[in-house]
Design brief:
The longest helix is centred in the C-terminal third of the chain and has 12 residues. Strand 6 and strand 7 form a beta hairpin. By secondary structure, the protein is an alpha/beta fold. It has a single domain, classed as Rossmann fold, CATH 3.40.50.150. The structure holds S-adenosylmethionine. S-adenosylmethionine (SAM) binds next to helix 3.
């Protein structure tokens, strides 16, 4: 748990922001699919709301209770916890996604290992991140540093290196990168 939870402080703002990249997520995550999807660092359920009709069940996990508190409990099961140690059995989910959260986690290596562990063989893990190679995202990175947000952005090829033995693909569009990992 971070010393100060920035996201709890802005959760009510986040809850009003809609996810505009649902069509791309649908494509890169090969949705719809029968089974369960885990949204890691899923916050208020902004992304999950946009894709929940494409899977049988969505579980959101996030370290910020304040963010999870805004999630629609009738649509998803919220689970509070860090991505570095996910409270799920091995091979539990057909899809695992993480949107705009990898740069916020405390340990990216542990988070990558855990997301892969809970993914079923043959399943897809999709990580969406702002592309740090672009000028706008570099400015965001500086702003988040000034706000003491502990952000640590990785370029797409660095994210791929977190998954050395997996089949991976990168898609980049308009300052956003999707890293697609097949288990
Ligand atoms: C920028 S928000 C994105 C939320 C959501 N994915 C979305 O796109 O609306 C980043 C989220 O990552 C969560 N987070 C940060 N560190 C985390 C960790 N170690 N484990 C799980 N969630 C974490 C924050 O609490 C926050 O809800």
């Amino acid at each position: 748990m971070p010393a100060f939870d920035h996201f709890s402080a802005i959760a009510s703002i986040y809850a009003r922001v809609t996810y505009s990249k649902a069509n791309l997520m649908r494509e890169v995550a090969a949705l719809p699919v029968a089974g369960k999807l885990l949204d890691v660092g899923g916050g208020t359920g902004r992304v999950a709301s946009a894709i929940c009709d494409l899977v049988d069940e969505v579980i959101i996990t996030d370290v910020s209770f304040g963010m999870l508190d805004k999630a629609d409990r009738s649509a998803f099961k919220p689970v509070c916890g860090g991505s570095e140690s996910l409270p799920f059995a091995d091979n539990s989910f057909e899809r695992v996604i993480m949107v705009d959260a990898l740069h916020h986690v405390i340990d990216q290596v542990d988070s990558a290992r855990e997301m892969l562990r809970v993914l079923k063989p043959g399943g897809l893990l999709v990580i969406e991140e702002p592309d740090i190679r672009t000028f706008g995202v570099k400015l965001i990175a500086i702003a988040e540093k000034l706000l003491l947000m502990r952000s640590h952005f990785l370029a797409p090829d660095q994210i791929v290196k977190l998954f050395p033995d997996q089949e991976t693909n990168i898609r980049v569009e308009d300052g956003t990168a999707w890293i697609i990992i097949k288990k």
